[in-house]
Amino acid sequence: MDLVMLLNYLIAFFSLFVVNVFILLYIKHKDTYLKPPQKTDWEPTVSVVIPAHNEGKYLEQCIETVLAVDYPKEKLEIIVVDDGSTDNTYEIAKGFKEIQAFKTKNKGKGAAINFGLKKAKGELVATMDADSFLTKNTLRELIPYFEDQKVMAVTPAVKVKASNSWIKELQRIEYLMILFSRKLLSFIDSVPVTPGPFSMFRTKVFDEIGYFDEHNLVEDQEIALRIQSHHYKIRSSMTADVYTEPPDNLRDLLKQRVRWQRGGFRNYWRYKSLIKPEYGDFGMYFVPLNFATITAFFLLLGLMAHSVISTPYYTQYIWFDAFGMSLGFFTFIGMFVIATSILFLWLSVKSFKGEQVKLRYLLSFIVFYWYLMIGYNSLFILKELRRESCTW
Amino acid sequence: MERKISFPLYATAFIISLIIFLAGVFVGTLLDSASISDISEEISDVSQQVSSVQLLLLMEGNSSTFCPVYFSELSSIDEDVQNFGYRLSYLEEEKGVQDIDLKMQYFVLEAESYLLSEKVKKLCGGQSILLIHFYSNTKCDDCQQQGIEILRARDESNISMRLFSFDGEIGSPVAKAFMDRYNITTYPSIVINGKTYAGYHTADELKAIISGANDS
Fold first, then answer.
1. Dihedral (C-alpha) A184, A185, A188, A190: value to the nearest 10 degrees?
2. What ipTM was assigned to the predicted interfaces of this complex?
3. pLDDT in tens, A250-283
4. What is the pLDDT of residues B128-157, one digit of tens each?
5. Å from A332 to nearest chain B CA?
6. Structural domain for A190, as ranges
7. Residue A290 — φ and ψ, nearest 5°?
8. How many domains does chain A have?
9. Residues of B within an 8 Å Cβ radius of A
10. For A188, which of B1, B6, B31 is closest by C-beta distance?
């Protein structure tokens, strides 16, 4: 067996293994994973911090959804931090008398969040993007998780509203899959991110572990890794809905994903010291998994390029026969890998009964998502190698 | 927080992945066997076709009346033989499937077809070039590239060529006999219209030899 074949088999086995871990977690928790913890009468004070930079388009709707949430108004504090916008963001925020609006110099999202966190007086604090929208039940579904004193953060079900935009629908499916994965990862204490659109924290955690890293490309991931490094729990809710506005064109989507990838890679590298048995599944499975995944991805790209370059000259005379003969065992292993991945995708989408996804978008996702990944992963490596700067 | 490693989860996932992996290997191996058995049956069919033409040649002696039939039959046989060759190479090089019996069966067909082509050429004439490539998959680094150069030479020249190839290292008696006949001592070696050219030759060199062979 040559090296190329061996690498192909290793990558196929690795992919099968990763998907099977998720499927097994689903099977183990399938009766409970959708249920939130028992609701209690506990109603802590909650602060919602909304950093905003030129968000005039969505901010009003965003604030309105926070004001409309099912929670006692006297226990809810809303803080908008305008991070040096040049549009009417600050004026919109000032228009709401129920909220506190601040204007700061443009220092980036992390700095704006930290400014708001330092003003927050709530026992719990949520950070929220200005282009995200709460539903009536968001807070009531998230708060019970904090009954466990070890829980320092809870992530909601961040979704994308159904639309007729192909690119938004692809992201909508992706968000459902990420959400489902995150829920399953919470069962092995391995939630790696507290999403920017909306995440809730126990306020005192920031005094202990520090505030958001203001120079991080994906500060919402870094803070989650820091919480993990302090052995605290992050929980994930499948029922606390939050809707967010995703990029509506390929250019912005690529830009966002390249930032995520670059920031994500840098963060995992920074926290590579968590690869220790004392960090349990997070240290011994999840963190190494990220390095293994990125390695496997680029190896696979290399192998695909190699197979194209090294296609024998004579294949042109027997392309039809070669196609038939290529249905050998590697193809079957590959088909099983694809089948288990599709099963996982189907489980993800079906977990959200209110989310109807059209078949054509699901098929598009299966066919095109891979190419999207190739695009942003290649750009990510290219930009990292060239040490290009990147801002939010 | 007391953190644990879910060993049973990973062990189960590993076992399930292994079962799926082996199932893939099993199904694929069945398909590879089916491919080999298909090629073997097709080789037998073409072998019968060669025997029929040989019989006709024997019956008709030195009469050139049937030359159009011989040419037409040889052309179809040639196409099949080359196709088998490509398919065998694909199985061997791309998929690592080695079946020595099948390869020997194929070399017998090639030998029959070559000898028939020689006879027909002698009886009926024609411009067709007969080229044999002697190679080894184990003792020759240039042989795979030599195969490509031969195909390129064929594709880039307007001369009709019948190609034959023998792996001299798999213990095929037919391949051995041909090697003795053409005094082959090294790989790659090429025989063009009965004349031996030892060593690696580029497509351009081959084209020059072929056009010279036809002029003479």
1. -170
2. 0.88
3. 889 988 999 999 999 999 999 999 999 999 999 9
4. 889 999 999 888 888 888 988 998 998 888
5. 5
6. 1-392
7. -65, -40
8. 1
9. 1, 3-6, 9-10, 12-14, 16-18, 20-21, 23-29, 31-32, 35, 82-83, 86-87, 89-91, 93-97, 147-148, 151-152
10. B6
